[in-house]
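Example record used in the benchmark description.
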Amino acid sequence: MKGEKEIVSTKTLGKRRIAGYVCDDVIRLLFPLLLLTFLPFLLTAQRKDKLDRANREFTTGDYTGAVRTLQTIKGIEGDTEASLLLSVSQFHANDLLAAEAGLLALAEREKDDFPLIWFYLGRIYHTQHQFTRAATEYKRYLRSLNSDGPERRTVVNLLRNVDNGIRAGFVTDEMVTENMGPRVNTENDEFGPVPSPQGSGRLYFSLVRPEIATGRVQSDIVVSTNAASGWATPTSLNPFINTTAQESLVDISPDGQKLFYYRGNSATEGRYLVDTFRANGNNELVTLDAGVPIDSRQGDMTPFFGAADGVYFASSRPGGYGGQDLYRMARLPGGRFGPPVNLGPNVNGPYDEICPFIARDGRTVYFSSNDPEHSVGGFDVVRTFRVLGTENQFTIPENAGMPLNSAGDDTHFRLAGDTFTGFLASDRKDGLGKRDIYIVYYVEPREEMQ
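Model output (structure tokens):
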């Protein structure tokens, strides 16, 4: 055949020239044949490498990287699983419009073959507070599940969340909530805001960012100041506080003289510390143990030190009602503390209760809960009240309302001393990255802070 003769003649020409030099004509003849032979294998290998890379990026939480990698794959529209991974990555990267368009195209093409599409459409509508549309998609996905496993329970809880969101009582015009913007927030993780007790012009919080040089995750305590031009880019609080370990801000004493924080290599391998200044006026920082018998190894977390009657904290220690519960250690004479006391079944339940904040009145307790009985999605800020005349009896929590809360995780809520302002961390989908710091403006002063 003609093709065979061409191949033979090319080989023969190559043999004649091998003793001397390789002629450009030989390369010109051989290269198209080699390309046609190996190109499918090269493309398949490159495609697999990119899919593997995108999966690794997705698994490690680098959703933006996964989107970039997947978008370089030619013909990804014909690969349902890769297209689904792209849409889910776009959802987690907060590009909801692109994620919705991709999922709707998949739903049209695949019909009922990929029920997971309905779940993520529900997530998109849920995060946009389109609760009725979210419920429709969640129910379609729920009907595709056969067993009564954890996946089914998750969807049922999400349906309870959107049902809470549909109820008009959750929406309030008492407040306005807004992202603090790109000066304060980044594509990384900001959380744990604590307003200065000395005024409304300074906000302290924790910033988590990956260290490219070491590959570790670095957590530092930073401060932002409020000026005429708005909140400034945060700066490191103090080089003696921020080290190569992970430091997370916990609290600031009401007099502004003590800064409580957590230092460790993980959430369970570290210590709660307090930094203060020497009494001789030299402004020399002194780091001490926090002096409260709470222990990260027992699951103790998110303590609040500013209450007059004790220290409140969340813990997964044995003897609770499930998940993280809220506890209080009463202050005793001589700087001692009583044993940890669970706040009881009205406050705690089988889900997680974290991030307590006690208002100035001493009886209003704000905290975050992912109990679908109270939440419109993820963790919501709720509040309970100590029953008058009692030490450890509290009312059943009530949702603090939208737009303070969202379909995302809303945690670390604090009211500022000016009585009009609050701060929280949230991973809601209008943010700049992971968790961002949000500010809450109240129309009327909060009575519990007066």
